[in-house]
Amino acid sequence: MPGWLRRPSGEPSARDRLDRLRERIGRLRAEGIKAQLEVEQRFGNPMAAPEAARPRLIAQMLQDERMPRAARPVRDCVGRLWDEVEVLRAKPEPEERDIIALEAAVTDLEGQFAPLGAWFLTRATVALGPVDVSSTSPFREMLTRSLVVDRDLLPTPELILRCNLLIKAGEAKAALKDAEAAARRPDADHRAFTVHAATLRLAGRELDAADGFRRAFEASPGPDFDLLVQAGKSLLLSGRHQDALEAADAALGANPSNLPALLLRGDALRFLTRFDEAEAAYRSLLERPDSPDVRLRLLQVFVALGRAEDAERVLEAVRSDPKASPFELALAFHFANRFDEAAAVSLQAMADPGLRPGARHQMERLQTAFDCSIGCPEHALDAVERLLGHDPDDADLEDCRSIALLELGRFEDAIASSRRSKTLIDKSDFDTSLARALRWSGDAGSALPHARRSYGARPRRTEVIAELACCVLQMGRLEEARALVDCLPPEASGDPYALYGRAALACADGDPDEARRLLAVAAEIRREFEISEVIDPVFHNGTVLDDARRSKLRSLIEGNALRRVALVDNVPPSLQHGDHMVIQALAQHADLGTPREVSHWLYLPDCRSAEDAADALRSDGYTVTLEESRGRSDGRWCAKAVHQIVVSPTTIAATRISMERLAARLAGEYDGWEAAVSP
Predict the structure, then answer these.
(1) Residue 461 domain-assigned?
(2) Which residues pair with 642 in a beta bridge?
């Protein structure tokens, strides 16, 4: 070697290393081709073997130790090649283009020869049936290695098979890339379009999935109406309820007994708020021995129609069914407007360390909605952001994030999150969330088109009627709001959203007592309405959230968080011993279910701190008196705060926490409470 190519120490130069690596890659390529030929000569093409003998042949191939051994030298050498490339990249001599060319050569070698054992994986799946693709399975390792094979080198049928395996293994992103490649090919047929649509659905792109299923239906050799039903399901999930109904009707026109089409038709009618027709569709399914469980769907219909007894019977059937999962039971309570019980079932299930990962993921998603319903937006937001970290394009999670942000008074963030959910999937449910976020921020004019769009899509849904009524009410259009509230169906008189809409109208009509009564009933059903009343400008002469209301909002959220803790163990939150003794004494002399006057004492270091405490307490509904502390020379002031509540372990524990936090913030001290024996 010429001296000018060597370093003084005798170490080969970077240029020499580069040339040697190129030579090694050439030798490895030859070894890889030889290994490939040996494997093919030994086993042949399993798909050319008789069908009856194929499973045994492929099993032998996959279990034969010589096949992975033939690939091992190539695979191991490629790893060392990458190490040497990294060393060269750190040196100044080689030109960037040479390094890039070398990396491309190593990548090509790795992609062509490293995954020899994976060549037969998709064929094995066809012949052997179900394959274990769990994280500990050798098939999973083979599947992972097969991903380095260039998609363009795989025939379309094998690409589709690998895509299906990736779906089963939970590798949604890799599956989508395979499916997109297969669907773009000139030889793509209905199978390629179907698997592409399935991966699009997994990615949350429901409208694109609907188009994919439609293409598959049009390309199928015979009219496969199940593909049309799948398209209808994606349309339904995208908020295209009328289009979903038309897809179901088209499938039923060809086969009136098509079970998935009948179920899709019932769901579409329910989403269109055509509840009587939806009930008839679901009842027709109950008569079939092969019918899926439609109890939860019927429960939603009965609640919407105000048929409380029918709803209670369905709920009891689910609750007493030993086969019902916690997920089903939690949903049943949720649909029955029993949100605390729904959250309790969900939280208790998630506290079980033996809960399967898939079921846990389901429950975590569900719990985000429950946390918003029970007035715990901070818990909801934490969970949603964690889930969005794994699936950032989930529109439903983004909408839940918007709701949680709104309940925390973070209007701009809520609006941005709601707009993003609509960008991901433009469905009318998200218009309701966006309208509320815009309206609560003080921009009722911008909210109105979204509220109207949501109303146009589902005109009998109480939530959208109430939101549209509040929107026009905030704009000063009282008679229009009154007409909308009058349109609330009589059967929905006990619905919390209907109560909320009527409370807003009562407030505008100058009847604050009736407004408070209706809001109290709504909040008993759905605790988040306590928060809504504090934030919503329609109850505060159009003013947006101020500091006093923010303080009250924080107190409510803290109290609800404490109640949430109690739901996990199904016991009240822990009390101080003295509080427990006082409650026991009261219970011996009076009915604790009746509201009574309760007094609380706070000691503050000076007059200014006492006045600040009084302002915060009055904003939370307390009657407050201040006086200089008697018998003390330290200049402290006493704040006595009085309110009417039902004395219980939950209310007292929550009040103590909020009082102690207020006192600590003002460098004071909470000195306890007392209650009248008689209400």
Answers:
(1) yes
(2) 599, 623
Same domain, 390 and 522: yes
Residues 533 and 601 in one domain: no
- What gap in Å lies between CA 675 and CA 601, rounded to an integer? 12
Please provide residue 628's backbone torsions phi and psi, each rounded to the nearest 5 degrees: -70, 135
Higher-scoring residue by pLDDT: 193, 161? 193
Kindly state the helix (H) or strand (E) to which residue 357 belongs, with its residue range: helix 357-373
Residue 479 has pLDDT above 70, yes or no: yes
- Say whether 625 sits in a helix, a strand or coil: strand
Kind and range of the H or E run holding 601 = strand 596-604
The two tokens of residue 104 are 């491309």
Asked if residue 333 has pLDDT above 70, the reply is: yes
Average pLDDT over residues 511-533: 88
Into how many domains does the chain fold? Answer: 2
CATH number at residue 433: 1.25.40.10
Distance CA 140, CA 137 (A): 5
Q: Are 94 and 88 in contact (CB under 8 A)?
A: yes
In b/e form, how buried is each residue of 424-438, taking b as 16+ CB within 10 angstroms? bbebbbbbbbbbbbb
Q: Name the 3-class secondary structure at 670.
A: strand
The residue that leads in pLDDT, 120 or 260, is 260
- Phi-psi map region of 324: left, alpha, beta (phi>0 left; psi -120 to 50 alpha): beta
d(CA 442, CA 546): 12
Query: Is 588 found in the same domain as 473?
Result: no
Across 374-388, b (16+ Cβ under 10 Å) vs e yields: bbbbbbbbebbeebb
Q: Find where tokens 């919390």 sit.
A: 496
For residue 307 the two structure tokens come to 């048929």
673: which DSSP letter?
A: E
pLDDT digits (tens, 9 = 90+) for 221-235: 888 889 999 999 999
* Backbone torsions φ then ψ of 595, nearest 5 degrees: -60, 145
With a CB cutoff of 8 Å and minimum separation 6, the contacts of 650 are 562, 563, 566, 572, 573
Looking at per-residue confidence, does 339 or 48 come out higher?
A: 339
The Cα 237–Cα 578 span in angstroms is 53
What residues make up the domain containing 395?
Answer: 374-539
Is the pTM higher than 0.70? The answer reads no
Residue 71 · residue 36 · CB < 8 Å: no
Cβ contacts of 292 within 8 Å, gap of 6 or more: 259, 263, 285
Q: What are phi and psi of 639, to 5 degrees?
A: -110, 120
Does 68 have pLDDT greater than 50? no
pLDDT at residue 6 greater than cutoff 80: no
Q: Is residue 196 part of a domain?
A: no
**In this structure, are 591 and 498 located in the same domain?**
no
Residue 231 has what pLDDT?
Answer: 93
CATH of the domain at 594: 3.30.70.970
Distance linking the first and last C-alpha atoms of the chain: 104
Contact predicate 514/536, CB 8 Å: no
- pLDDT (0 to 100) of residue 104: 61
Mean pLDDT over 81-89 rounds to 67
The answer to whether the beta carbons of residues 133 and 169 sit under 8 Å apart is: yes
660 and 614 co-located in one domain: yes
Q: Is the pLDDT of residue 445 over 90?
A: yes
Identity of the residue numbered 339: F
Residue 511 and residue 410 in one domain = yes
Q: Could you give phi then psi for residue 668, rounded to 5 degrees?
A: -110, -160
In angstroms, the CA 189 to CA 279 distance is 38
Residues in the chain: 679
The pLDDT > 70 percentage for the chain reads 75
pLDDT of residue 568: 67
Cα 588 to Cα 583: distance, rounded to the nearest angstrom: 9
